[in-house]
Amino acid sequence: MNTFGLHTFAIAPVWDLARIEPQMDRLKEYGIGLMEIPLLRPEEIDTKRTRSFANHYGVQLIPSLGLPRALDVVERPDEALDFLQPAFKVCNEVGAEALGGVTYGTIGKTTGRAPTQREIDGMCRFLERAAKSAKARSLKLGIEPCNRYETHLINRGIDAARIIERVGADNIFIHLDTYHMHIEEESFAVGFEAAAPYLGYVHVSEANRGVPGRGMLNWAACMKAIADIGYEGAITLESMNHVDVDIAGGLAVWRPVAEDPRDVIEVGLPFLREEAKKAGLTLG
């Protein structure tokens, strides 16, 4: 069984327990066993209350983030490492085992060119240090390939695998996202197979970031590819139903992704469970 997760943005723009808790009984009925916390501003997370929330509802937690635009892991890696420390602290305090997301760069920040050798070298040095810092806190560190419009550094599963092999840290994993894969990969089969040895987390997201099943993404091929590699980790719906202003620009989200926001949950979650079932996967 794969743990079925939900990214906060499907129901709220920030990790706001006053807004999230009233929805949890309904989400549990849909099989949700994990919540993803966007760490846009780590200092805003009430970690004690969040851990109590997770224990009460019996859900796992995984925080995620993208580095702020002002940071540069190549030119000023110390600043980026300093930014990660409060995020790692939040992970520990809420009982999470990992930090996911674009931990190597900034969402929406590109040069318009392929990454230079200097950029790749600098990113690898940074990830080596970041992984070491995470390991000191008994944490794993995810790297999420993003599409070419959001980053030029890591776009495909094979790109992430090569970075991990070069860095050599045993606590770095690949965090794939079907929205980005739909743009960058030759096929879901190719992308998941390339990432398989290091795959630790999966976002399932429609091609338009809206209601799963109401876009152009080939869900049958997606779920089959996940099943074929024997992936047993979490599978989390990410929909940009509600997006914080600090990240909306980088994601290029400026209009509603669903005509009725409730459909992301009420239609999308059952659809994903059914598509997974057809491929021999159980989400719960």
UniProtKB/TrEMBL annotation:
Transmembrane segments: none annotated. The keyword Isomerase applies. Gene3D superfamilies: Divalent-metal-dependent TIM barrel enzymes. One of its GO terms (molecular function) is isomerase activity. InterPro entries: IolE/XylAMocC-like (IPR050312), Xyl_isomerase-like_sf (IPR036237), Xyl_isomerase-like_TIM-brl (IPR013022). Residues 25-253 form the Xylose isomerase-like TIM barrel domain. Keywords: Isomerase. Signal peptide: none annotated. This is Sugar phosphate isomerase/epimerase. It comes from Mesorhizobium argentiipisi.
